[in-house]
Backbone:
């Protein structure tokens, strides 16, 4: 089992980011922030999907004026995403946001940065410093010739130095690129330099399918390195679609569980049951369950129970009949048409026994 990097704990509203706390899932709205009702509707969709922290763009005063109502009604802590304008950052802080996303070097100079940092410190609001490979400073591009891990880390350290100089250390850092190898290399390099919590992700990852693959590879690699305290899966898709992907990545890395995991085989010529349909129906029937179980849906009665012995409970298909098994041991044979109903009965009994045992 890998060890997570020991990072500074930062408080974002009711959430703790870093310090060994569970990795936080976040997303960003794509509505016009000035449209309060549409923004809140999307935040509620994200919350229902399991998002824990939401970022909103604040490009102008109209958006800033909407923040007090959004913050007051949001079920999630709100992060204000601001570029260049320190007045918008100050307005966001007065509106009660839980975190700012700015780049200290482009907020208007040291005097204006000091105003933002002083108010953030007073209100105990952390700052996320976000470096993006696509918008590196010209001097760094000239120095390194292109966006490299070293250039991204130098940019981050420069921005971090500006707020540290002002005595501010409630910082979260991100280093994002659309290239997975560049993103992973940059985070690995930065992790050797600082112990601030890291917000991880692959930016501009792509469409729902492609972006899922790129995000899983990049975010998964970092998590298995022990890096990452909060994450976002960036997809060109409705924001709520990002959350199931984030959950699956964390589940795959064995960092968090969000209900049952289904283990199922890819089928082969020995399969004598409609396994794809069966797995889908099991998934639908257990959608309401929150217990962190491992359930198996296997196509082969010969090898299935043994191959899925780590499952709390499972089913395996056979000719005209199926098996129900627990931890690799067969507990009942039933006609194929009764397999799913019998499995659900055993599952409910299993859950009732577990809850009784913990009561």
Residues:
């Amino acid at each position: 089992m890998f060890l997570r990097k020991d990072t500074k704990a930062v408080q974002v509203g009711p959430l703790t980011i870093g310090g060994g706390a569970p990795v936080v899932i976040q997303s960003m709205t794509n509505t016009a922030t000035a449209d309060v009702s549409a923004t809140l509707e999307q935040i509620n969709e994200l919350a229902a999907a399991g998002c824990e922290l939401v970022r909103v763009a604040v490009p102008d005063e109209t958006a800033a004026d909407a923040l007090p109502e959004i913050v007051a009604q949001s079920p999630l802590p709100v992060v204000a995403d601001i570029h260049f304008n320190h007045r918008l950052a100050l307005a966001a802080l007065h509106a009660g946001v839980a975190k700012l996303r700015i780049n200290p070097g482009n907020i208007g100079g040291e005097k204006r940065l000091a105003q933002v940092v002083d108010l953030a410190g007073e209100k105990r609001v952390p700052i996320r410093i976000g470096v993006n490979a696509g918008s590196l400073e010209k001097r760094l591009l000239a120095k390194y010739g292109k966006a490299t891990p070293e250039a991204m880390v130098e940019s981050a350290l420069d921005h971090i130095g500006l707020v540290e100089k002002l005595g501010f250390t409630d910082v979260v850092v991100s280093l994002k690129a659309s290239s997975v190898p560049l993103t992973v290399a940059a985070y690995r390099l930065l992790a050797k330099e600082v112990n601030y919590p890291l917000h991880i992700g692959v930016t501009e990852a792509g469409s729902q399918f492609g972006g899922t693959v790129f995000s899983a590879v990049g975010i998964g690699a970092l998590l298995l390195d022990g890096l990452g305290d909060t994450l976002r899966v960036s997809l060109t898709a409705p924001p709520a679609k990002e959350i199931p992907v984030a959950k699956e990545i964390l589940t795959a890395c064995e960092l968090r569980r969000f209900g049952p995991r289904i283990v199922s085989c890819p089928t082969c010529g020995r399969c004598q049951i409609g396994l794809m349909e069966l797995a889908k129906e099991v998934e639908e029937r257990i959608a309401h369950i929150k217990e962190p179980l491992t359930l198996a849906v296997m196509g082969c009665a010969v090898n299935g129970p043994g191959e899925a012995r780590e499952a709390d409970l499972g089913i395996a298909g056979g000719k005209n009949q199926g098996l129900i098994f627990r931890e690799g041991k067969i507990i009942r044979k039933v006609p194929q048409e009764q397999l799913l109903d019998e499995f659900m009965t055993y599952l409910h009994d299993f859950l009732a026994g577990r809850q009784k045992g913990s009561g």
Remarks:
- The mean pLDDT is 90.
